[in-house]
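B., you asked whether I could sanity-check this one before it goes into the benchmark set. Here's the sequence:
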Amino acid sequence: MDITIKSDGLTKDFGTVLAVDDLSFEVGKGQIFGLLGPNGAGKTTTLRMLAGLLKPTAGDAFIGGISMEHSTEEARKKLGFLTGDMDLYRRLKPLELLTYFGRLYEVEENILRDRIAHLAEAFGINEFKNQLCEKLSTGQKQRVSIVRTLVHDPEVVILDEPTTGLDIMSSEFVLQFIKKMAEEEGKTVIFSTHHLDEVERLCDQIAIIDNGKLTFSGTIQDAKKTTEQQHLADAFFSLVNA
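And here's what the prediction gave me:
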């Protein structure tokens, strides 16, 4: 199995809080990997270290075999990262914003134009493309944010709560799109959410962290078998309260 994402002993010590403690896992090409844990477990800190936005105290992250520690810019080019606290540029319109980010990633103009057109159509952005981002609804902003994450056609996609603010139909579309990215395009996805029903539908493998430590890594069936539970939610509670 080709390993596309690797967390190698990632540790983050903020001085008063050891947020992530020697965390290691691997994700294969084309897999959807669920990173789970209660609030404060260290998920967001882990994702930020994987994305190169936060420097680890120890350890390293590898994206497509490239060290985030030693070749940060090269590793970042392979990565698309969505997190809830990354706002849109309010004075830009959606297509202007997508063009801006595509150019930041040095996507060729003709390729960028076609990719934006495809994604804008797929995510229904053309319906509000002439509005300023500051005027968009929460769901509209989330759709633009997801497309911004994908505009440079990254090999690896990290999605932190991607269905936040979306109605049930939009959420279903996003889930199906994620599944298609992995199955048809071979993209590797880290999917972090509190919606365990979404995890159960999508993820090939999961990791559960609690208090910064890895408490489980494997398939959903393995988690159920290990805890002797029939449902992922019950297995999750058993593993974080162990």
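One thing to flag: The first helix runs from residue 43 to 50. Otherwise nothing jumped out at me.
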